[in-house]
Amino acid sequence: MDIPTALFYIFSAVLLGASFRVITARSPVHAALFLVLAFFSASCVWMLLHAEFLAISLVLVYVGAVMVLFLFVVMMLDINVDSLRQGFWTHFPVAALVGVIIVLEMAAVLIPGFDVRTAPATDPVAMQLGNTKLLGIQIYSHYLYPLQIAAVLLLVAIVAAIALTLRQRKDSKAMDASQQVRAKKADRVHIVKMAADVEAPPAPPAAPAAGDSKP
Fold first, then answer.
1. 132 in Cβ contact with 53 (< 8 Å)
2. Distance CA 155, CA 175 (A)
3. pLDDT in tens, 32-76
4. How far is CA 101 from CA 17, 51, 98, 107, in A?
5. For position 139, what pLDDT does the model report?
6. CB neighbour class for 77 (10 Å; exposed up to 12, middle 13-18, buried from 19)
């Protein structure tokens, strides 16, 4: 076994372990950190496959931006994890069945791609372009519509995340803009007429009596 093969098995094992911990971790923050580890391991696998652009994009986009967004959303939502875990084992058989079906479908699609006997011949012109340009040609020519659909789904997810953060909570101090617009001058300033409170002038000192005068 050569070094690249050994590294592939190591990174793949770390990727599988981190992915399993993402769905089994009790804390959402810990699950997000395990997802960062899974992204890094997948990036290393892409590097071993000589797909440098995909590896760097995975680190910069997902680890640098998306995961930071996940952590902020998890902290802002203040999710009660205990209530979400209620009934976990009740629905576990159905979830396991769906997971097995997904794994079988992915295996049926991906396994034929590992057959080197049916692999197409390498185009020397394509090899000179580099994997970054080839990826751009494939995405914006053959997979343009799936790319647009993915962009719309991401936009919907962003709007949903913003809507979840604006829900009514006891500790929320958000202001209603519609109520601020409908405010009138009489609602903001109330003039009360009060009687003036004038202090009486101090009494003059009493004049001393004649018998009290001293020589």
1. yes
2. 25
3. 888 888 988 999 998 888 888 888 888 888 877 777 777 777 776
4. 20, 29, 5, 10
5. 84
6. middle
Q: Count Cβ atoms within 10 A of the Cβ of residue 142 and give its class: 0-12 exposed, 13-18 middle, 19 or more buried.
A: exposed
pLDDT digits (tens, 9 = 90+) for 22-34: 888 877 778 888 8
CATH domain 1-81 topology: Four Helix Bundle (Hemerythrin (Met), subunit A) (1.20.120)
Domain boundaries, the chain: 1-81
How many residues in total does the chain contain? Answer: 215
* Region class of 11: left (phi > 0), else alpha (psi between -120 and 50), else beta: alpha
Question: pTM of the prediction?
Answer: 0.55
With cut-offs at 50, 70 and 90, classify the pLDDT of residue 121. low
Instruction: Decide if 34 contacts 25 (C-beta within 8 A).
Output: yes
